[in-house]
Amino acid sequence: MEREIKVKGMHCEGCEQRVQKLVGRLSKIESVTADHQSGTVTIAYDGNPETLQAANEQIRELGYEVAQ
Ligand SMILES: [Cu+2]
Predict the structure, then answer these.
(1) Could you tell me the distance, in angstroms and rounded to a whole number, from the CA of residue 65 to the centre of ligand 1?
(2) What is the mean pLDDT of residues 17-33?
(3) Cβ distance 45 to 30 under 8 Å?
(4) Rounded to two decimals, what is the model's pTM?
(5) Cβ neighbourhood burial of 55 (10 Å; 0-12, 13-18, 19+)
(6) Ligand 1 centroid to residue 19 C-alpha, Å
(7) What is the pLDDT of residue 18?
(8) Domains: count for the chain
(9) What is the crossing angle of helices 13-24 and 49-61, to 10°?
(10) Can you give the residue range of the structural domain that contains 22?
């Protein structure tokens, strides 16, 4: 299942890479694509709400704002 998360605060490719690397380390997340220009992080995951929640928390821990 794929989900697009709206994220504020990513300003460059470095931000994209941090998000992709750290969110991509979470279990049950198959792939992560971050785009600072559109302010989105797209994840492919198992469809479990807890997995989505973990991704949101990781993004916040990195200092970005997740719009619900
Ligand atoms: Cu940046």
Answers:
(1) 13
(2) 98
(3) yes
(4) 0.95
(5) buried
(6) 10
(7) 98
(8) 1
(9) 140
(10) 2-67
